[in-house]
Every structure is written in C-alpha cells, then in structure tokens.
Design goal:
There is one protein chain. The chain is mostly helical. 68% of the residues lie in helices and 0% in strands. It is globular, with a radius of gyration of 18 Å.
Length: 210
C-alpha cells in the first residue's frame, strides 16, 4: 500500500532540495540528493533519476540520423535498465568521445554513470555516488545544449581550446570564461532550477509509492 505521508526528515530534505534548486546551490543539491536517494530501494532511486534522462533523449535523437549508434545506444541502455533493473558488465565507454553536438557528450556520460550504478557488482555507496553523478551530469548536459545551441561560436571556442605543447598555455585563454557566461544566462538558470525541482518531485513520488 502506497504511503501518502512522509516522515519529518524526508520532508525537510525535500524542502532543502527545492530551496537549493531555486538558489542554484549545486554543492548542497548533490549532498541532499544523495541523502534522499540513500534510503530508497535501488530500483525506486534508479527510476527517479532515469526518468529525467529519458525525458532528455531528444537532445541526442534530434541531433543524429536513424541508424547512427550515437542516436540508438543511449535509448537502448536506458530501456535495458528500465526493463531489467541492471546494466551490462561491459559498457561502450569510448562512445562519449564521438559526440560533438552541444551537451551530447555530457548526456551520454550521464547515461553511462547511471549504467555503472546499475551494474550488479556495485555496492550501495558506489551506486549512490553514480546515481548522483548521473542526475547532475544529465542536467549539465541540458544546460549546455540550451546555451551553446544559442551560441555556436562560443561552443566552437570551448571545444577547440587546448593546451599548446610548446608553451604549456591554452590556445584560447579567454575561452575559460565562457562557462561563466553559460552559468549566468537567464534561460539556463531557469532550466537549471526547473530540472532539479522536477527531480525533487519524482523523488517525493517515489517515497509516497513505497
């Protein structure tokens, strides 16, 4: 029978998560998220995180053609976890490097972190850390797609910036300031808060379904 009420600690943590979402306190968000996911049965915690990644699949699927494994593999991995509750022992880790669309590499990294949480040989604390990483990276991916989709020139600068082997300096030192512009963008800020708030709603629903 589903539990329609929450204990005081859970209520307080959900409130803290929503407050941190509104103020964009990322360090607090990740700490409170781990605290909330910790007592949940693993599949309930997995489901709360995976639903956010499934909702963000258009980030990948609108960017790559049918038949391209970069389009199909993330959905296959997410579907497998939803169906079976665990991930394969061998993961396509090298796939991340093949994504050049804004936010795509971070999104696939989030999917792989979720897979690592769902591998059968992982202990509880390790699973928890991977779940938090997957949730955070999925949100970062969507923030990046939004900002760099509006600013492809800035994305090109960040992507192409590298350390010159002769001088030891970055080829475009000012590109290091671009993520600050991303963080300060009003649309990105609104999306950031909204995605964390939606995650809080899913976690609350998971508790009430116990």
């Amino acid at each position: 029978m589903a539990n329609s009420t929450l204990d005081i600690e859970t209520e307080a943590d959900l409130s803290a998560l929503r407050e941190a979402a509104a103020t964009r306190e990322w360090s607090a968000l990740q700490v409170v998220l781990a605290r909330l996911l910790n007592p949940l049965p693993f599949f309930a915690a997995l489901s709360a995180v995976i639903e956010g990644l499934i909702a963000a699949l258009p980030l990948i699927e609108s960017s790559y053609e049918e038949g391209d494994p970069r389009r199909s593999v993330p959905r296959q991995l997410l579907s497998g976890m939803m169906s079976y509750g665990f991930a394969p022992d061998q993961l396509p880790d090298g796939l991340v490097a093949e994504y050049e669309h804004p936010g795509a590499a971070q999104y696939v990294h989030a999917v792989l972190e979720l897979c690592r949480a769902a591998q059968r040989d992982k202990g509880h604390d390790v699973r928890l850390a991977f779940l938090v990483s997957a949730a955070a990276n999925g949100i970062i991916a969507q923030m990046g797609e939004l900002f760099y989709g509006k600013n492809p020139d800035l994305f090109a600068r960040v992507r192409d910036n590298h350390v010159d082997p002769d001088s030891g300096e970055y080829t475009d030192p000012d590109a290091a300031k671009i993520p600050i512009l991303l963080w300060m963008d009003e649309e990105v800020a609104a999306l950031d808060s909204a995605l964390w708030s939606a995650l809080a709603d899913r976690i609350e629903a998971a508790y009430k379904a116990l």
